[in-house]
Amino acid sequence: MLILGVDPGSRATGWGAIRCDGPEVRLVEAGTLTPPAADPLPRRLAALAAGIGEIADRLRPATAVLESPFHGMNARSLIVLAQARGALIAALAARDVEVREFTPAEVKSAVAGSGRAGKPEVARMVRLLLAMRGDGAGAALSTDASDALAVALCCARRLRHDRISELHGRSK
User: Fold this and answer.
1) What are the tens digits of pLDDT across the range 51-64?
2) Residues 105, 113: contact at Cβ < 8 Å?
């Protein structure tokens, strides 16, 4: 199963694809969509939707997953983030990609073992869980791409847990 993690932002949107084969999880690709900063917001949103659409068309993920927005953001930032999320979700839904969401605490807990883990710890655990070395495919991972991979890993863990629970429930 291919899972596409997305870390939305109007200036930079991270994305990362992982493939899950049983208990094994491996990195497929990751990157960052960065529309021109000088473009007005509607153009940046269109560029993000087109970019994630191209990625979804090429990789054909079974599911896409985003982190739900966190509280404490100022109203203006939250509105712009919501618009970016909307553009990305609409582009994925137009391609019949299932979209899931997890809270920041769920993602941190699934990847780093604590819902209060910091970004450096989450990024380190993403690299460890995906067996990424200091060179090669994941060497220059942006923070946004690392966050997207963390969300994808959280989804993979949740799906695995749900399957185990389902199997356990059937055996009773």
Assistant:
1) 999 999 999 999 99
2) no
Mean pLDDT of 2-30: 95
Q: Amino acid identity of 8?
A: P
Quote the pLDDT of residue 74.
85
Neighbours of 9 (CB within 10 A): 21
Distance CA 68, CA 158 (A): 16
Confidence of residue 135 (pLDDT cuts 50, 70, 90): low
State the catalytic residues: 7, 67, 144
Write out the two tokens for 76: 């203006």
